[in-house]
Task: inverse folding
């Protein structure tokens, strides 16, 4: 019985941590509509196993399942998985994003979405650089361009991503402004969140 609960504790803990680590990749795959359902199922599974682990710890003095879940819960609460994954995404794909910037500035890439001149659909090779369909937003600033690569493309005005700004000063009116979060990553690069 201890092995069964230990196995369930590992499965529920790993499920919760993997969701926390991979949530932005998964939301792109499952869409923002289904991701809350997946989270709800993972949390309910974790809580049911936690309650059973507490019960077995009290009744039979078997502590390993509860310990596994306690470690997983601590990691979930105190490790900034979102920040780590955003930084990893930025540095892994920075050179590819710089290629896209060069292609936009040389007019190799032009707006391809007919409804607006500020959206460019990336070629298949570069689609992974902008979540939610492979589109980037572009705004001309003098003879250069500001570009926005989505890390999350939610509904209406709820989105986040990396913004490249060619000038030394951040344009507060870029892409409609109204940003809830602006974090400078390095010179010319910002992470933006809008809610």
Result:
């Amino acid at each position: 019985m201890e092995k069964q609960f230990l196995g369930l504790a590992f499965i529920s803990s790993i499920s919760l941590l993997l969701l926390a680590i991979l949530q932005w990749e998964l939301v792109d795959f499952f869409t923002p509509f289904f991701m809350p359902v997946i989270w709800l199922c993972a949390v309910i599974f974790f809580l049911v196993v936690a309650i059973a682990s507490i019960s077995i710890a009290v009744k039979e003095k078997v502590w390993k399942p509860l310990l596994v879940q306690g470690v997983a819960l601590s990691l979930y609460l105190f490790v900034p998985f979102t920040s780590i994954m955003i930084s990893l995404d930025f540095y892994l794909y920075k050179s590819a994003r710089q290629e896209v910037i060069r292609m936009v500035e040389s007019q190799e890439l032009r707006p391809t979405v007919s409804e607006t001149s500020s959206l460019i659909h990336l070629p298949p090779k570069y689609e992974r650089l902008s979540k939610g369909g492979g589109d980037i937003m572009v705004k001309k600033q003098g003879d250069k361009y500001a570009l926005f690569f989505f890390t999350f493309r939610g509904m209406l005005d709820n989105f986040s991503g990396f913004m490249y700004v060619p000038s030394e000063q951040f344009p507060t009116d870029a892409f409609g402004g109204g940003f809830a979060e602006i974090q400078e990553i390095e010179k010319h690069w910002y992470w933006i969140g809008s809610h």
